[in-house]
């Protein structure tokens, strides 16, 4: 039996709710309605694939609802509705995405049936995509790390002026014996809360160094290899020596390795982090500040940290096309990076328009689905050939 998916509607305008419900039913969905944010839990119990949310309601505002959706790890998608104008809708969208709630779209009141219908017909709602949440235990993850079930996908990074391939970011996946291929959102938080982030990172570093030093068939790549570090690495004083030893063992050059540290991993009292980062730099490693814009780095902090690269978070890059505030964040991050002598990389470059805009804005490097999705090492050589023709058309 094929069950129809649910669409949940949360709006204190009862007539509007009924109208939207009729549109959703006509599009083949079951619907559930509520008119007060306090009924959110009841709506979520039906596991809707889509929640249409009015961000201005009497009893609980939509921003509070978004916070609760994030806390409940809502796996469906969100449609944000408001009569308060585009700026308000864009900030609500940004806020949701910053908390990992996926946004399918925004609708301004008065709502037209066609606009809602267009969102309801999006293919991702049909192909059963709520990210499956597997119950994973600490013991299972420890076993997976130990049994070499982790693997790496690599995502290319290219220079915006001429499209030259300059680096890859290693992104971890877990080939789970029961659940199949798992992405980081299924296990990184657990690793970080259960003391497994360092063992996981050590495996990732060992694998990445081995694979990249071996290369692959016809692959010609001499760029940098970027590796993500968990916050805990910023308090492990033995880390710099350990990676130096790992690099020496495979005969790689430290200059070719870039460690990505998120803005929020550098704590308020950063003495230890500064020591670790400085020693990594002294050993020749490059450093990148990841997810820039989502944290709270003060300029003062940044000035004193020895970063080579500033990586603008994909949330701002993807929103830059439509949202003025995001555009300003991207532009000021580029200016800041330039002033501090860092290369600036934009992640989440999903189309050609963004590519051209970023290049004109003075951004140095790009990473994103427009260039390439993360892929196994063996596929990089084929991508390199295909990109070579595509990049020529871009410059
Ligand atoms: P991140 O470091 O910000 O990595 C970028 C994420 O954005 C990756 O997701 C990548 O697949 C995705 N992405 C890249 N380009 C685009 C694009 O154009 N559009 C969109 N929508 N997404 C894009 P992924 O692989 O699921 O990784 C998620 C996060 O998991 C990473 O975010 C990173 O914080 C963490 N992570 C991944 N590998 C490791 C690791 O080895 N160690 C640690 N500690 N964390 C890791
Ligand atoms: Ca990263
Ligand atoms: Ca990021």
Task: For this entry, give a set of tags.
globular, binds calcium ion, 2 domains, 21% strand, binds ligand C2E, alpha/beta, TIM Barrel
Strand order of the largest sheet: 6-7-9-10-11-12-13-14
The CATH topology of the largest domain is TIM Barrel
Proportion of residues in extended strands: 15-25%
- For the record, the count of structural domains works out to 2
In CATH, what is the homologous superfamily of the largest domain?
Answer: EAL domain
Count of DSSP helices? Answer: 16
Helix content: 40-55%
Mean pLDDT across all residues, rounded? 89
- End-to-end Cα distance, whole Å, is 52 Å
The CATH architecture category of the largest domain equals Alpha-Beta Barrel
Order of helices and strands: EHEHEHEHEHHHEEEHHEHEHEHEHHEHEH
Q: How would you sum up the global shape?
A: globular
Strand elements, count: 14
| Largest sheet entry | 8 strands, mixed, barrel
Low-confidence stretches: 127-131
Radius of gyration: 23 Å
The hetero compounds bound to this protein are: ligand C2E, calcium ion
Q: Could you describe the 3D structure shown?
A:
With 395 residues, the chain is an alpha/beta fold. The chain folds into two domains: 6-126, Response regulator (Rossmann fold), CATH 3.40.50; 136-392, TIM Barrel (Alpha-Beta Barrel), CATH 3.20.20. It is 41% helix and 21% strand. It has 16 helices and 14 strands. It has helices at residues 14-26, 40-45, 62-71, 86-98, 113-120, 123-126, 138-146, 188-193, 197-214, 239-250, 271-282, 299-304, 314-319, 324-339, 352-360, 380-394; strands at residues 6-10, 30-34, 50-54, 77-82, 102-108, 150-159, 165-176, 180-182, 224-229, 257-262, 286-292, 309-312, 343-347, 365-367. The strands form two sheets. An eight-stranded mixed barrel has the order 6-7-9-10-11-12-13-14. A five-stranded parallel sheet has the order 2-1-3-4-5, sandwiched between helices. α1 (14-26) packs across α5 and α9 runs parallel beside α10 (239-250). The protein is globular, with a radius of gyration of 23 Å. 36% of the residues are buried. The site of one calcium ion (CA) has 4 residues, from loops. Residues 155, 171-172, 183-185, 188, 201, 204, 228, 230, 290-291, 314, 347-350, 367-369, 374 line the site of ligand C2E.
């Amino acid at each position: 039996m094929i069950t129809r998916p649910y669409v949940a509607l949360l709006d204190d305008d009862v007539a509007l709710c009924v109208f939207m419900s009729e549109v959703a039913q006509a599009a083949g969905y079951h619907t559930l309605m509520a008119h007060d944010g306090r009924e959110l839990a009841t709506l979520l119990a039906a596991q809707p694939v889509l929640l249409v949310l009015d961000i201005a309601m009497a009893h609980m505002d939509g921003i509070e609802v978004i916070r609760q959706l994030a806390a409940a790890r809502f796996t469906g998608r969100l449609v944000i509705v408001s009569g308060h104008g585009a700026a308000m809708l864009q900030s609500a969208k940004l806020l949701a995405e910053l908390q990992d709630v996926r946004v399918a779209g925004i609708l301004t009141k008065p709502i037209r049936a066609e606009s809602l219908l267009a969102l309801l017909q999006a293919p991702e709602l049909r192909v059963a995509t709520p990210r499956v949440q597997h119950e994973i235990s600490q013991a299972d993850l420890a076993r997976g790390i130990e049994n070499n079930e982790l693997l790496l996908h690599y995502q290319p990074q290219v220079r915006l002026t001429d499209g030259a391939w300059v680096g890859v970011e290693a992104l971890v996946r877990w080939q789970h014996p029961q659940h199949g291929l798992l992405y980081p959102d299924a296990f990184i938080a657990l690793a970080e809360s259960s003391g497994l982030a360092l063992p996981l990172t050590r495996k990732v570093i060992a694998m990445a160094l081995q694979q990249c030093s071996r290369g692959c068939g016809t692959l010609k790549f001499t760029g940098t290899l970027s590796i993500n570090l968990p916050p805990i690495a910023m308090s492990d004083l033995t880390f710099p020596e350990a990676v130096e030893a790992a690099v020496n063992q495979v005969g790689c050059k430290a200059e070719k390795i870039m460690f990505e540290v998120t803005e929020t991993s550098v704590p308020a009292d950063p003495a230890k982090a500064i020591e670790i980062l400085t020693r990594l730099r002294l050993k020749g490693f490059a450093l990148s500040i990841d997810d820039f814009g989502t944290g709270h780095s003060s300029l003062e902090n940044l000035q004193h940290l020895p970063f080579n690269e500033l990586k603008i978070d994909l949330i701002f890059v993807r929103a830059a096309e439509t949202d003025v505030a995001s555009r300003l964040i991207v532009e000021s991050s580029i200016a800041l990076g330039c002033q501090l002598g860092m290369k600036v990389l934009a992640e989440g470059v999903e189309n050609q328009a963004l590519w051209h805009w970023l290049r004109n804005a003075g951004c140095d490097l790009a990473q994103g689905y427009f260039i390439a999705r993360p892929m196994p090492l063996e596929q990089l050589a084929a991508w390199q050939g295909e990109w070579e023709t595509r990049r020529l058309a871009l410059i």
